[in-house]
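user: can you give me the structure for this one chain? tokens are fine.
assistant: on it. calling the predictor now.
[tool input]
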Amino acid sequence: MNFRFFDCLTLTLISFLMVSTGADDTARAVDHDEPTRSVIVVQGVGGSPQFDDSFRAACSKIESAAKKAKINFTWIGGGTKTADSKSDRDLLKIAIESNLNEKSQLWLILIGHGTYSRNAAKFNLRGPDLLAADLTNWLEDSTAPIAIVNCASSSAPFINSLSGPNRIVVTATKSGFEISFARFGQFFAEGITNMEADIDKDEQVSLLESFLFASKKVQEFYKSESRLSTEHALIDDNGDGKGTPLEFFRGVRVVAKAADDTIPDGLRANQLHLIESEFEMKLSASIKQKRYQLEMEVEKLRSQKSQMPEGEYFEKLELIMTKLAQLYASQEKNPLQNADSNASDHSKKDAENPKAKNLKKDENPSTSKQTKKAANPK
């Protein structure tokens, strides 16, 4: 059987289930085990009105997206400083501590300038700068999903410091020595709400798709200006600390193969969405987690394809895809019974209450990897 045909057949089946589920106007029950989604955007020091305005505009776009999604939002670096104010670095630490817990999903987006010297990468703030090592220390004990998007120049070493399990790290550059002003941030902020960035046509833009959109826009800018590109963005979400550039992706999947069969970057990042589709908002946290596990099984199987007979490969693939289709079918059949089995009596009452059927869709947050030797951010 042709692999591409099989993929198309599977996607058609899943799409059918998604459409039929989406047609059900009954909202799912409140899942009290769902993570609380938060966005912290940090506006760095511009050094000139031109850069200040550019950074502020990008932060404002992210703020608008967070408001549309009705999730927690904190903006650091945009207000007026006074002599007795806490430093932006201290305010960031406080914001992270306030928004990070075992049930949180945190997006940390840095918009500004960066520097690299003596093997230390910094994000430039008013007052003390932010070191990659600072975030490493502050996030050390967290196991919650965290996306760190550093849109500054010289940002690549943040991948080396912060890469790990359940982490997504995006940088605007592929090395600390790309020191020129990075335009990645303005395009990333634009991509979050731009449906042009929706590559897989699931009516929502993922973190991965925002990365790919911004990376492509950066390329187009330098090409249109007939200039040599001074920034090459990377994404790392498989924990190997290497990062993958735009060129390794076809659609939302990495096409190059790693020598050690490492699961490529991109899978986890494609499961996180700042603004979710109507269909996504109907899925419980438990359904999303099971979907994530099944999609991970598919990627592991694909990495092993060359090591097994074709028939065995397709049998295993069909088994996983069938489970995935059944997962969506179970959501359609029992839209009010997919909360975690340990949900409180309060959540059960909510499910039985007619008012629970009309819950706002945007109160249901999302939960949703690197194959090259080439772009090493060191």
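assistant: here you go. The chain has one domain: 7-378. The two ends are 43 Å apart (CA to CA).
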